[in-house]
Amino acid sequence: MSSAAAVLRAHIARSRNVGLSRAAGAFAFRAPVAVRCVDHVSPNVLLQRRWHSGDRSLNDDKPNLTHFRETLQPHPLRAKPHQQKSADRTSMEPDEKPIVNLMQNHIWSEKEIDERLANLYQHRPRTASDRCMHGIMYTLYKGFNFITGFKPVNTPVKAVEWRLIVLESFAGVPGFMAAMFRHFRSLRTLQRDHGWIHTLLEEAENERMHLLVCMKMFKAGFVTRLLVIGAQVTMTPFLAAIYMVHPMAVHRFVGYLEETACVTYANIIDQVQTPGTPLHEAWSGLPAPALAKAYWKLSDDAMWVDALKCMFADESNHRDVNHTFATMASDDPNPFVEKHQDSAAHAWRLEMEGGSADIGCHKTLGTKAQAQK
């Protein structure tokens, strides 16, 4: 034991001499490694001190430490790089997929989209209420075109981006507002709603999904956000006041709104598919975001223009639904209930079979398995 202790003291002394010859604070000190005391300790077994100075360490033992920001442990504010990357258009948020699966939207076919693109139906006002709503809507439409710089030929890409964001953010308001009024009316009168609420909520949810899909492709600037807030703050109380007095007028107004949306989307699709236009140069080669593929059951190689076609078809459906509601009494049964059931069954069947929507693009034909071959 005495010889071992002497060797240990000599080693410690040498270590101190080396430490004093270094610049103060240049090295980090680690506590001595504990050595189990036994009766016979070999002189070669020495207590080690580890001094670290990067690559010039005395024993070349580098600390194995990983910064919290570089680990995969989630940050509560989603501030880590891997959490921020998950928000791009090629992937979905962890909680997006199960939520989207709960939504039962109509799955469009090539035939349906082509028929609707070829027939941009526009209702002709018949009553004084119709003419009033038509005048208000198309005045707003022309003013909106002027503010956003939208034009039917060679439209600037930026003008289309913030136009779609403002349009979809406002289009999701009337359906939810009408559903709210009918919900309260049903509770207040202790009577059925006859199926209207579901269709109106489906419309509001669908318009909100359009907005979220657009936000996967481009971001909203400060001016765009101001327009979104301004449209919601001014138009929501206006439409709510009318709905309390004359609900059918609001449905007619929304029908005219959806007519303008159909014209806008049809024009955008045509420009994206026409070589030489700014939209063709910017958007023709863009893949559809993952959210759009999940929502409309598109194939894995679907393009952005395919998502635009589905959005157009949705708008044409809202146009027809609201023009129909505008002609009905408030206690008439909803004629679209069976259509919702059929759409839900078709979407479920595609999901179970691993299929995808056929909307005319060769990259989206067939099933997902075939598309990957």
C-alpha geometry:
elongated
Number of strands: 2
| Helix residue percentage | 55-70%
Structural class: mainly alpha
How would you spell out the order of helices and strands? HEEHHHHHHHHHHHHH
Task: Outline the structure in words.
This protein has 373 residues and is mainly α. It contains 14 helices and 2 strands. It has helices at residues 2-21, 81-85, 96-102, 110-118, 128-148, 157-189, 196-217, 222-245, 247-272, 278-283, 290-295, 304-325, 337-353, 368-372, and strands at residues 28-29, 51-52.
Write a concise synopsis of the structure shown.
The protein is mainly α and 373 residues long.
What is the fold's blueprint, element by element?
Layout (H helix, E strand, L loop, with lengths): L1 H20 L6 E2 L21 E2 L28 H5 L10 H7 L7 H9 L9 H21 L8 H33 L6 H22 L4 H24 L1 H26 L5 H6 L6 H6 L8 H22 L11 H17 L14 H5 L1
Antiparallel strand pairs: 1-2
Helix pairs in contact: 4-12, 5-9, 6-7, 6-8, 6-9, 7-12, 8-9, 9-12
